[in-house]
Amino acid sequence: MGDEINEEVIYKEWEEYGFDKSFREFFGGDGTLDKHKTKCLKNTLGYPHFKSGVWELQVTVGKQSFPVILKIMKKGRAGNEIEINIYSKLRETMQDVMPQIYSVRSDDDYVWVLTEHAQPISEQTEFHPEYFMKIVPALAEMHSRTFNKWHADLYEEWLPFYHSDTMVKKREHMMGETLRYLDEGMKQADLSAVLEPHYHLLQKIYKKGPIFFPEVIEAGQCITHNDLQMRNVGCNNLNESQWYVKFLDWESAQYIPCWFDMVSLIGVFFGYRQDFKQDEDRILRKCVQLYANEMQKHGVKFKKDPMELYKMAYLQRVLEYDLYFHIKKGLDRKVITLLPVFLEKIEEWGKEMRLH
Questions:
Q1: Domain boundary residue, one of 56, 91, 116
Q2: Nearest residue to 287 via CA among 312, 318, 259, 321
Q3: pLDDT tens-digit profile of 297-355?
Q4: I need a labelling partner for 148 at 20 to 30 A (CA). Which of 195, 197, 216, 266 fits?
Q5: What is the CATH number of the domain that holds 228?
Q6: What is the pLDDT of residue 3?
Q7: Structural domain count, the chain
Q8: Mean per-residue pLDDT over the chain, rounded
Q9: CA nearest 109: which of 80, 68, 88?
């Protein structure tokens, strides 16, 4: 049915599922759908993805008209099941840091989720790294909700957990594959030029794995978003001094060390945006200290220096995942954009953090 879900199907299900009544709790009345203002933002429900579809709908309640998002997710796909469970089982816990959920409906094949339209920041403005200071407090708020609160009965069946047998084996496998890709990369001219100066150092470092910095794990774990690109960070009040940030698209969520999300948010950005390199250290230090301060407001005090924890988390994440992915990317697609950045950090921060 994935290929067959279109506007007409949505209009039919809107009535059958009673989506119009979903707005009573929030706006005091039923929502009327404007069928002339429906926009498909993405549809990968059909072959070969069998993933999800996203539609922007225009709804009127009384005299108020506003956009909402309808996301339809195929059941059975691992990432979808994570996101479905986040919406259905952690709705009250995480509601303030994700779009307001108006309704969740399920049929034999799909889950239909009707939410607030939290517009991605990337669609509204040219992002400047100073904006991280407005996002970090929301990240700390989100992390504090589940910090060091692993509930096996609630999470175990669907949420990847850092210490689970599956994830431990996956990390070990990826590190072994990283060394194999490293050898393969040494046979290709472009990759070899980047990898060769670091080849022997990486061989030595990987013998110390898979956990290079237990301090990062000891600092605390929680439900992390794990894919904090600006397209997955929404905000509807960019013109105000305090942003009300909502995190979007939770299919990559995991229960892992909290500092990995700071790497996902900030480290990857600076990796791609080398035009901000001269500002990286200053902004990074401000953001890391802000995160530690905000977490302390929520009762979480880190025992180790926050900047050291960030650098350790960055190195751990690069060694257990990013090098694997980006060397493979270089082999498969000849794209090596971030490799020099990662290798530079392994040299510089690795020495500083006594990794080598």
A1: 116
A2: 259
A3: 999 999 999 999 999 999 999 999 999 999 999 999 888 889 999 999 999 999 999 99
A4: 266
A5: 3.90.1200.10
A6: 55
A7: 2
A8: 95
A9: 80
What is the rounded distance in angstroms from the CA atom of residue 257 to the CA atom of residue 205?
Answer: 21
- The answer, yes or no, to whether residue 46 has pLDDT greater than 60, is yes
Please check whether residues 87 and 140 belong to one and the same domain.
no
Residue keyed to tokens 């994570």:
82
Q: Which two tokens stand for residue 294?
A: 């905000």
Q: What is the pTM of this model?
A: 0.94
CB neighbours of residue 234 within 10 Å: 25
Residues constituting the chain: 356
Residue 268 has pLDDT above 70, yes or no: yes
